[in-house]
Amino acid sequence: xxxxxxxxxxxxxxxxxxxxxxxxxxxxxxxxxxxxxxxxxxxxxxxxxxxxxxxxxxxxxxxxxxxxxxxxxxxxxxxxxxxxxxxxxxxxxxxxxxxxxxxxxxxxxxxxxxxxxxxxxxxxxxxxxxxxxxxxxxxxxxxxxxxxxxxxxxxxxxxxxxxxxxxxxxxxxxxxxxxxxxxxxxxxxxxxxxxxxxxxxxxxxxxxxxxxxxxxxxxxxxxxxxxxxxxxxxxxxxxxxxxxxxxxxxxxxxxxxxxxxxxxxxxxxxxxxxxxxxxxxxxxxxxxxxxxxxxxxxxxxxxxxxxxxxxxxxxxxxxxxxxxxxxxxxxxxxxxxxxxxxxxxxxxxxxxxxxxxxxxxxxxxxxxxxxxxxxxxxxxxxxxxxxxxxxxxxxxxxxxxxxxxxxxxxxxxxxxxxxxxxxxxxxxxxxxxxxxxxxxxxxxxxxxxxxxxxxxxxxxxxxxxxxxxxxxxxxxxxxxxxxxxxxxxxxxxxxxxxxxxxxxxxxxxxxxxxxxxxxxxxxxxxxxxxxxxxxxxxxxxxxxxxxxxxxxxxxxxxxxxxxxxxxxxxxxxxxxxxxxxxxxxxxxxxxxxxxxxxxxxxxxxxxxxxxxxxxxxxxxxxxxxxxxxxxxxxxxxxxxxxxxxxxxxxxxxxxxxxxxxxxxxxxxxxxxxxxxxxxxxxxxxxxxxxxxxxxxxxxxxxxxxxxxxxxxxxxxxxxxxxxxxxxxxxxxxxxxxxxxxxxxxxxxxxxxxxxxxxxxxxxxxxxxxxxxxxxxxxxxxxxxxxxxxxxxxxxxxxxxxxxxxxxxxxxxxxxxxxxxxxxxxxxxxxxxxxxxxxxxxxxxxxxxxxxxxxxxxxxxxxxxxxxxxxxxxxxxxxxxxxxxxxxxxxxxxxxxxx
Length: 898
Ligand code: TRP
Ligand code: ZN
Hints:
- Helix content is 40%, strand content 20%.
- By secondary structure, it is α+β, with helices and mostly antiparallel strands.
- Among the domains are: 1-197, Immunoglobulin-like (Sandwich); 462-574, Aminopeptidase N, middle-beta domain (Immunoglobulin-like, Sandwich), CATH 2.60.40; 822-898.
- The strands form 8 sheets. Strands 2, 3, 5, 6, 9, 12, 14, 15 and 16 form a 9-stranded mixed beta sheet that branches.
- Tryptophan binds next to strand 21 and helix 2.
- Its cofactor is Zn(2+).
- GO terms for molecular function: aminopeptidase activity.
- Belongs to the peptidase M1 family.
- Its EC number is 3.4.11.2.
- Residues 28-191 form the Aminopeptidase N-like N-terminal domain.
């Protein structure tokens, strides 16, 4: 039985072209927080390619006052949330349709549609928020030309912004004023935006390569202006990069970014008027860490790159979401790598991206929300803004890049724009353009099979085995692939998997590669695995080699090979592929961790053997490796990554093992950490560049290790030094790293430091988010974190309505602190279910994200498993759940979707 308002699943196969087109839209807003009036005048036309149908317009929480057709009254009816006009004039002449509605932005806590944040009006229309502003064909394949007039109190809302160009502005009666904006490009309604409020802007005039003048603006609240320099620089770099790398120029006179502190996601690519979460705009050396600076650059790039990949060419329907998101993530990752410059800094960025994929996307693919990069059905589209769509989607684009080469990829992009500029298309259209532009490539040769990356969910498993024949001097490499059934699909067919590889000698030197019957290539080669099993023979291999497989993580798969410890140590010391060098260390650490997790009894204090510790010491002391890279090698795999490797997960056991391993690293390398701290401490005047940021991150890790080691020896030197650094730090990175070291090591100085930190930054919301988040992620001694989190819920600075704040406290505890969250008394799960329900009444989109936190409950050992299922069932049993949360918990329980 469906409750009222309960949606059913939407199927990709049901796609139909719209029965009507909307050619132009003229919107007039009388902005008022309690009651905003919206007059929507559209020119509409029947789609001649589709049998005649009624016009059905989407709406959500609107008050309808008037409908007029061609200047006169018209009959209409409501069907659920849709406004239906059945008796419109026949024929294909355009019609004028006028709809007058009101809405209440101040009551809009979902932050979708038109809402108020700190006295300023903002909109968020992707994916289906425009229907909360006016009745419309709210689907991305209906693209229209927009004219927008904003009217509001001049005193309260001096700045009035919308998409495109400002063509008129002036004063009205009663202290009101107006601004009229015209967007020169047609667009789907999800790219509409308006902003009205008291804002100030940093401005920059630029000239593009093509010689066109543009005005760039970053709008923030007064007082935040000095935190916008980095965002503006990032925007200028983005504009230059897209021209240089892809020949794509800015197509607008004016490009605006506006920051708001109330935002469901990271940022939004509205045409010419990007709206950002303040977290991804504001950055100053005293309030933002190096990671924040890097995130600002990458999100500014991401949204700017959408201007072509998403806006000029958009999605036919929301099942094609990865068409714009996967491609745009690929572009922002490449942008960050190109900005980073050195090969080593590029490798660091690649490792960070792969880490996200493996710790978040692989679990998604193995859990109840598994879906292909191009899903087949959904209940709530907001639930499909996932790591699969974004990060795996980017990997699928990256594989195409690897299969056609860098130049071939640029050709493919060119053909994609030649064919589809100005239209709404599918993922198939993208791959087809890539293939057609590269007729001789393996992508084109295996095109139909390659497309399985879009249609099949699940993470493929590639098993490798090698055989060396010393008499024939040949090395035979066999690769096989399989993919386990996923929650959504029982059957999988083989994928096209590019496996970049090389061979190392026992001393670590790169061996020349020569496939039998072919010429010597170089020291690296890409094998294209297409069958269930395939074999390659390498000739003139002078010694038994160590294979270096899946270099640069050339495909989003799990690679299994029976490496000996010695082989992995060789790779860790010598592999020329920086990714695999890091990977070798991770494989060893994971191997020892899993052994200790599976062993009964108390966790040993020497989980890792001396040879591995000493190899890590060599990396830490290495004369030429970058600090950022060393820091990644010395960081153990996360608890969630370890959990994914196990059939049955005991979160407390995993936590205890990882803690013990970290303690072992801290104690065994104590002198080396002290050296590393001193050797990397001077990073000069603050600059967020990768080299000095790497030094800061390594010294931060060193401090934590030294504080951990101090616990064993009850020495107070390093905790004292750490507190000193916390007090004296000249930038937020050093300050926050020192504070974290105190908190994570459970130092007694942690509490006074936290208090001091709050006092210093009480007026900096983004820093207060860090303060909440750090405490929610603290090390759990005797179950002390949950009571602290509950206490913090009552803190005057806490608010459930602000998504950043809710995430900083609740998500940091429920989703990022497994050792504290998975309690044998189930109190963590009860807390989770209370918060999911509480949030659902305010903001279903954010609630559904939190609801994902128990996706992997089936893998848990008892008593966690039963307790977690009960908590999910408790949420599912609540009447009037949002579609968002209902879809997530229903899938988690494994029930049929309504
Ligand atoms: N399109 C945005 C991006 O990836 C994502 C986004 C921002 C979003 N806000 C949203 C998606 C709200 C759904 C709902 O750049
Ligand atoms: Zn995006």
